[in-house]
Amino acid sequence: MPEFVLPPPAIASVAVAGSAERFAVRRIFCVGRNYAAHARELGNDERDPPFFFTKPADAVVDSGAEISYPPLTSNLHHEIELVVAIGKAGFRIPRGDALTHVWGYGVGVDLTRRDLQDQAKKAARPWDWSKAFDQSAPCGPLVPAAKTGHPEKGRIWLAVNDAVKQDGDLAELIWPIADIVSICSEAVELQPGDLIFTGTPSGVGAVQAGDQITGGVDGIGEIAVTIGQPKR
């Protein structure tokens, strides 16, 4: 067994619905602007080729968690998303084979420091500080695709303090799940444990300390997290 200078970090993981087992997370990929209405609300073209950004694996937190309001921002936004969990490795996966690489699905929230993202866009700099921060990828329990099938439609929604802010349908995805998996695998070899956040419908907006975020995807599950006070 190898010896390490420092203790290895805990393995990042998310819950599996109806099981004591957990899904070990290797990497998190996120798709930008994958719903036409959301692309329009950000002032972008509807059918741009999909692009990806990443979050660290340990950005995941379980449903039910309290998330500290992050530093360096005064404009923290919610983005509800269908999450794809990869269960089989693949590189340059043909679209027709893509769904065989999917282990299951969940409901996630891509938390975004929007003010930092806007600054990065204006300066043509990377988005990392706006997307890849601590606790920025809440994810509800995953459900195996063997139970859910591969969703092509269904309501996806998010509420803040019980007021619905985002309300769309998976049928509105510009690039469906098979396309997303296939295109992502052109750039990286997907591996078991990878998560793909597939994009958010319109209605994104700011949350404050004390707010409760709830959301769900029909046939997949729900998520609930609370935004806590900033760390001191």
Word description of this protein:
The protein has 232 residues and is of the alpha+beta class. Helix content is 15%, strand content 34%. It contains 5 helices and 18 strands. It has helices at residues 36-41, 114-122, 128-131, 145-148, 177-187; strands at residues 13-15, 22-24, 28-32, 51-55, 60-62, 66-68, 76-78, 80-86, 102-109, 112-113, 137-139, 143-144, 155-160, 163-169, 195-197, 205-206, 212-217, 221-228. Strands 4-3-15-8-9-12 form a 6-stranded mixed β-sheet. A 5-stranded mixed β-sheet has the order 6-18-17-13-14, with no helix packed on it. Strands 10-7-16 form a 3-stranded antiparallel β-sheet. A hairpin with a 2-residue loop joins strand 13 and strand 14 (163-169). The longest helix is centred in the C-terminal third of the chain and has 11 residues, at 177-187. It is globular and about 45 Å long. 39% of the residues are buried.
Labels describing this entry:
hydrolase, 232 residues, hydrolase activity, metal-binding, six-stranded mixed sheet, Fumarylacetoacetate hydrolase family protein, 15% helix, alpha+beta, Fumarylacetoacetase-like_C, five-stranded mixed sheet, globular, 34% strand
Mean pLDDT: 94
Tally of helical segments? 5
Strand count, sense and closure of the main sheet? 6 strands, mixed
Strand order of the largest sheet: 4-3-15-8-9-12
Low-confidence parts lasting 5 or more residues at pLDDT below 50?
Answer: none
Class by alpha and beta content: alpha+beta
SSE order, as H and E? EEEHEEEEEEEHHEEHEEHEEEE
Indicate the proportion of strand residues: 25-35%
N-to-C span: 39 Å
